[in-house]
Design brief:
It is a multi-pass membrane protein. This protein is mainly alpha-helical and about 575 residues long. It has 22 helices and 6 strands. A hairpin with a 4-residue loop joins strand 3 and strand 4. The radius of gyration is 29 Å and the shape is globular.
Length: about 575
């Protein structure tokens, strides 16, 4: 709400400019205002005015009223707090209605997205560098092709996928420790964000990201590389929790969906950057150290940028640091928005002085349902098969004659970035829930196409082309909703006192499922066949459609406080 203060000296009325806003007030010129109570109304809005006959003054307390104002051809409703004492209305400054906010959240969203870029970069950088670093560190005595599959088996009559070679245990540790670290980091991020605030957690997050990248760059042994990857995993785990949390809490309601999807977009960009950075490897095998070292740059920039970024006003208000919250709001949205945002925060609190929630509070009757929805969003995301599709996309593309691994990865990455960009433009128009339903429906259809392309004899001449088409359509469908929406939706549906911990718990489910699907996927495919597994993923997508239809609420165009009052009302 905007705050306007004007003073009153005598018994005169409003000037011409004010009469545009409050009609029918001109007759106040002839009235003696002493000892009377007036209510001035314009359309559906009013100011409550109490008169003090002794001082002949007007004192309007901190009353909130809505004034319908018209400027040109546009009409907007705005709330104002008005105060006046001891002076006349004639000399009062006219009530000013601010248009656009004078603040901007975009620079701070950009700083936060450095962590999202690092998230994607650290996940993608090892794919191109692993074969070369394995040779340097002495763990490539055998072929170290992880996940490379027999293309003939993919398209063969047996419908089974067989790894060409088993990976050395040390090799697997280099890959899997990132997921283990991310699991730990996601829970750590939630606790740190609650205790120290969002911006300080970003600064702390830069430590494992930087140290981990440095250890990977300078590693002379497998053990040093594993420790470095473990630390970077902790860093990206913290990032996965804190980036969507911070962006959702500082973004204006009307563009929160668009800005929320920027997180997923920059993760995709980070993966693509890692792909591009790996291009010189074929001509310079030692380039892998430079690839890991480049991650130090955004890590340092993240820490420096967050030093100058405002803290989340919602976290500050939750801590009782009201004046700091007002300062943060002023930097983010402009001083004219301070009263409005503070009013929303006060309304959300509803007079409650609840302490920060503990981990067990997440399972209380008040929060149990909304927390289960958050966990289910990431559970369904992983059961839909995204990692499996991306994992085997190279083999699928080779079956269609695309022999370049870089070209295959670039095609999948481009589809992901394109879909996420489209989702970003639709998030605040189409809505979160509808995009999720469209996304999972498209993923189910794509999985069915992939499954049938491997089994139907009539499709055998076109199996390679259909497999590529199904893969690209699947990734595109995923990036429209199932990819970006969960990380955006979760901070929106969780109450402020549980938001950080609940996001961390949901992301913990994500990393656990990611780990186990990667661990057992090959065994399941070998036993049941790729076509059956893909059909199982299609059924999981349809289950997701049913679950989302019955349980997920639409949050488009609603403030976080409004959503909280509906889903988790104060006791």
């Amino acid at each position: 709400m905007q705050t306007s203060t004007f003073t009153v000296k005598g018994n005169t009325g409003f000037g011409l400019q004010n009469r545009r806003i409050l009609q029918g007030v001109s007759d106040l010129r002839s009235r003696n205002l002493a000892g009377k109570s007036l209510r001035m109304t314009e359309r559906n809005s009013c100011f409550g005015v109490s008169m003090d006959s002794a001082s002949m003054g007007i004192e309007l307390g901190r009353a909130r009223r809505t004034v319908q104002t018209v400027f040109g051809s546009s009409a907007k409703s705005r709330s104002h707090r008005v105060r006046a004492a001891g002076e006349d209305i004639e000399d009062a400054a006219p009530l000013k209605v601010q248009g656009q906010s004078s603040g901007s959240v975009l620079p701070y969203v950009g700083v936060a997205c450095l962590a999202a870029i690092l998230f994607g970069y650290h996940l993608g950088v090892v794919n191109g560098a692993l074969e070369y670093l394995a040779k340097d560190l002495g763990i490539a005595e055998n072929t170290v092709i992880q996940g490379k599959v027999n293309v003939l088996a993919v398209l063969g009559k047996k419908n089974i996928l067989e790894p060409l070679f088993r990976c050395p245990i040390s090799y697997r540790w280099i890959v899997s420790t990132v997921l283990a670290g991310a699991f730990v980091g996601s829970f750590t991020g939630g606790a740190l964000a609650d205790k120290f605030g969002r911006t300080k957690t970003f600064i702390l997050d830069a430590i494992p990201l930087s140290v981990g990248a440095f250890l990977c760059t300078t590693a002379q042994s497998v053990q040093a590389m594993i420790i470095g990857r473990l630390l970077t995993g902790v860093g990206i785990g913290i990032s996965s929790a804190i980036v969507p949390l911070y962006i959702s809490e500082i973004s204006p309601t009307e563009i929160r969906g668009t800005l929320g999807t920027v997180n997923q977009l920059f993760i995709c960009i980070g993966i693509l950057v890692a792909l591009v950075v790996g291009l010189p490897l074929s001509g310079n095998p030692s380039w892998w150290r430079t690839m890991f070292g480049l991650a130090l740059i955004p890590s340092v920039l993240l820490a420096i940028g967050m030093v100058f970024s405002p803290e989340s006003p919602r976290w500050l208000y939750q801590q009782g640091r009201i004046s700091e919250a007002e300062t943060s709001i002023k930097r983010l949205y402009g001083k004219e928005k301070v009263a409005e945002v503070m009013g929303d925060l006060e309304a959300s609190a509803q007079g409650s002085s609840e302490p920060d929630a503990g981990w067990l509070d997440l399972f209380s009757s008040r929060y149990r349902k909304v927390v289960s929805i958050g966990a289910a969003m990431f559970l369904l995301q992983q059961l839909a098969g995204i990692n499996a599709v991306v994992y085997y996309s190279t083999a699928v593309f080779r079956s269609a004659g695309i022999t370049s691994d870089v070209a295959a990865s670039a095609l999948v990455g481009a589809a992901n970035v394109f879909g996420t960009t489209v989702a970003s433009s639709l998030m605040d128009k189409q809505g979160r829930k509808s995009l999720l339903l469209i996304s999972y429906t498209g993923m189910a259809a794509s999985m069915m196409l992939l499954s049938l392309s491997f089994t139907w004899k009539v499709l055998t001449p076109y199996s390679g082309t259909l497999a590529v088409l199904g893969t690209v359509l699947y990734v595109l469908s995923f990036s429209l909703g199932a990819g970006p929406v969960p990380a955006l939706l979760l901070p929106e549906i969780f109450a402020s006192r549980i938001r950080a911990k609940a996001v961390a718990l949901s992301l913990g489910v994500h990393w656990i499922m990611n780990f186990f699907i990667g661990l057992y996927f090959l065994s399941i495919v070998t036993k049941f066949g790729i076509s059956t597994v893909y059909m199982g993923f299609a059924l999981s997508c349809l289950v997701a459609v049913v679950y989302i239809t019955g349980n997920v609420v639409e949050t488009k165009g609603r403030s976080l406080e409004e959503i909280e009052r509906e889903l988790s009302p104060a006791i």
